[in-house]
Amino acid sequence: MQCDKCKKNEASVHLTQIVDGKVLKVDLCKSCAGESGVQDTTGFSLADLLVGLGAADEMKKEGPGARCPVCGLTQADFKKTGRLGCATCWETFAPGLAPLLKAMHKGDHHIGKVPTRAAHTLVISEKIRQLSADLEKAVRAEKYEDAAVLRDQIREMETKLEAAGAAQKTA
Amino acid sequence: MRPMKLDQLLKSTSEWVQSEGPQNRIVLSSRVRMARNLRQYAFPGWAKKAERQRALETMRPVVESLPEMAECFSELMDNIAAIDKQMLVERHLISREHAVKNVGSGVVVDAAGAISVMINEEDHLRIQAIRAGLQIKDAFKLIDRVDTELEGQLEYAFSPRLGYLTACPTNVGTGMRASAMVHLPGMVLSDQINQIIQAVNKLGLAVRGLYGEGTEALGNMFQVSNQTTLGEREADIIERLNKVVLQIIEHEESARLTVLEKKPKLIYDHVGRAYGILTNAHAVTSKEALNLLSLLRLGVDLELLPASVRSVVDELFVLAQPAHVQKFAERKLSAEERDILRADLIRGRLSVMPKPKIGVVPPPRDGPTE
After folding, report:
1. By percentage, how much of chain B surpasses pLDDT 90?
2. Chain A neighbors of B217, CB-CB under 8 A
3. Alpha helix (H) ranges present in chain B?
4. Angstroms from B152 CA to nearest CA on chain A
5. Mutating which of A57, A97, A105, A161 best tests the B interface, going by the most B Cβ atoms within 10 A?
6. Least CB-CB distance to B162: which of A86, A109, A115?
7. What is each CA distance from B133 to A68, B97, B205, B245, B311, in whole angstroms?
C-alpha cells in the first residue's frame, strides 16, 4: 500500500479514528507518520492531517487550473498549507471541500449563530428569490402588468442588498 | 480606552488564576475562542504584507473601542519583546503560533486578563474568554457578546451555508473552540488516562496534554475541547462539552478515592516527595516543577495539605514556567540559572506550607496490596 502523503514509500502506519461515528482512515509511511506527529495519540487528530491530504486530491478533480479569482490561491497552495486564502476560496473550491467537511465535521451546513448584518441580507436575498419566482409565474401567465411591478420590486430589493454592503453569496 | 502597559498586565497573575471557580479541585479554567475573518481581505497567512497591514489597521481600533476593553493592553506584535510574547503564551493569552508573529499582527487584552483578541493570527480575529474553574457557559456568554459587538462594526466573512469562514477547514461553521483545562492525577496514577482519552474522542471531543511535547502530559494537566465546528449549534457544543467534563470530574474523583483506598502509601509517597523536594531543592527544571506541583495540588484535594495551598500552587503553575522565571530575574539567564531561580521562587512561596498531614492509613478494601 502506498503512503497517502508522499505517494512514494510503502505505507507501514495505518490509522483509523472514529469521530462521531464516522471512520477516518489514513495510511502513511514511517517518515511521513513521524513528520505528522501521529505517534502522539493524544494530541493528534486525523481530521487535521486529512486537511493536507484528501482535500487537495478532491480539488484536483476541478482541474489543475483551479485558482481563486479573488486571492489567486491554487489547489497546490492549499495542499502545501492546508489553509485557504480568502472568503471567496470557499466558493472556488467548494466542490472539493464538501467531502472533506463531511468527513471531519458533524454536518455539512452551519446551524449556529448568524451575524445580524448577514441575517438582514439573508432576508433580502430570500425576498428576491420569492419575487423572481412570482415574476416567472406572471410572465408565463402573460400578466405583464404584474410582471412589471414585480420587476421594479426586485430592482428595489437589489439596490437594498447592495446598500447593505454585503452581497453575501451562498458558498 | 485607557492603555495599559504590558508589565502592568503581567504584574499579577490573571483573574482566572486567582479567583476560585466552580469545580476547581479538578477544573482550573474554561476557555472559549471564536475564529472570525473579514470579508474584504485575504486571510492573514495568504495576504501580502500591505493587505495584512490594512486589515490590522481596520480591526485594531474597533477592538480597542469595545466596552470590555475600556482598560486594556494593546500592542503590535513587532513591538513586543520575545520574552514578553512567551509570557503571554504561558498565561494562555496568545497562542504559540501568534508568539512568532511580527509586523502586521497585534494583540489586545483586557485589564483582568479574561478577554484576549489576537489580530492576524491564522484568522483575522481570534477572540477568547477565560474563566476560572468550570465556567464554559459563562466564558461562552462573554465571548459571544464581544463577538456581537465586533460584528456591528466589522464585516465578517460569513456564508449562510457554511457559517463563519476560516482559513482552516477544521474551524469553519461556528469558528468556536471551547475547552476546559483539567487536572487528572488520579486517572494518570491509576493508568486510566488513555481509556478516558479514547472514550472522549469517540464523543467528538479531543483531550490533549496541556504542557510538554508529544505524548507527555506534564503536571497531569489536560485540555478537553470540541473537535468539530460545523453542523452543530454553539450552545449544543458547549452543553456537550460541559456534560463530558462533569463526567470526567466524576471519574477523576473516584479514581483518586480508589488509589487512596488501595494504595494509600503510593499517594503519601508522591505527595511527601513533592513536598520534600519543592521545599528543599535548589535547582528545579520546569518539567519537574510542573509534575511536583501537580502532586501538591492532589495533596490539597485529598486534605493532606491545607486548602489555602491550592491557590499558591495554581499561581506557581504559571510563575514557574521558563519565561516567567526569566522575567522575574530581569536579566538573561542560562538554563541552569533559571532552575536555581525557579527553586528559590518555589521555596519562597511554599515556606508557609505545613508538612503533609499523613493520617492513619485507612484499611485497604481488598486486603493489603503491597
Report:
1. 81
2. 42
3. 6-11, 15-18, 49-64, 82-90, 96-99, 136-151, 185-189, 193-202, 234-262, 264-280, 286-301, 309-319, 322-329, 335-349
4. 7
5. A105
6. A109
7. 44, 25, 19, 11, 12
DSSP lists the bridge partners of residue A7 as none
Is the pLDDT at A61 greater than 60? The verdict is no
Residue of B nearest to A68 (CA): B42
pLDDT digits (tens, 9 = 90+) for B288-327: 999 999 999 999 999 999 999 999 999 999 999 999 999 8
Residue B63 contacts residue B150 (beta carbons within 8 Å) = yes
Sequence-separated (6 or more) residues with CB below 8 Å from residue A42: B197, B207, B208, B209, B215, B217
User: What's the rounded Cα separation, in Å, for the pair B124 and B35?
Assistant: 8
Question: Which residue from A18, A20, A51 is facing B228, i.e. has the nearest CB?
Answer: A20
- Which residues of chain A from 103 to 162 reach within 8 Å of chain B, CB to CB? 104-118, 122
Length of chain B: 370
Write out pLDDT tens, residues B189-245: 999 999 999 999 888 899 988 876 555 688 999 999 999 999 999 999 999 999 999
Q: Residue A87, Cβ neighbours under 10 Å: how many? A: 26
ipTM over 0.90: no
Q: Which of B83, B34, B31 is nearest to B328 (CA)?
A: B83
Partner-chain contact B159 A116, CB within 8 Å: no
- Chain position carrying cell 512514494: A8
Task: Count chain A–chain B contacts defined by CB atoms under 8 A.
Answer: 169
- As a dihedral over the C-alpha atoms of residue B110, residue B112, residue B114, residue B120, rounded to 10 degrees, the angle is 30
Helix (H, G, I), strand (E, B) or coil at B79: helix
In angstroms and rounded to an integer, the radius of gyration of the C-alpha atoms of chain B is 22
Query: Which one-letter amino acid corresponds to residue A133?
Result: A
A70 touches chain B (CB under 8 A): yes
d(CA B16, CA A20): 32
- Going by pLDDT thresholds of 50, 70 and 90, the confidence category of residue B105 is very high
* B156 φ, ψ (degrees, to nearest 5): -75, 150
Task: Please identify which residue in the block is written with the cell numbers 512568532.
Answer: B100
Contact assessment for residue B171 and residue B157, using Cβ atoms and an 8 Å cutoff: no
The per-residue pLDDT for range B138-184, each reduced to its tens digit, is: 999 999 999 999 999 999 999 988 999 999 999 999 999 999 999 99
Q: How far apart are CA B215 and CA B233, in angstroms?
A: 31
Partner-chain residue, chosen from B170, B176, B214, that has the shortest CB–CB distance to A48: B170
Strand partners, A78: none
Which residues from A are below 8 Å from B215, CB to CB?
A: 39-43
Inter-CA distances, B143 with A161, B137, B243, B368, Å? 29, 10, 20, 52
Under an 8 A CB cutoff, do B214 and A168 touch? no
Residues of B in contact with A122 (CB under 8 A): 160
Mutate to test the interface with A, among B32, B37, B46 (most CBs of A within 10 A): B46
- Give the minimum alpha-carbon distance from A36 to chain B in angstroms, rounded to a whole number: 11
Q: What is the pLDDT of residue B368?
A: 46
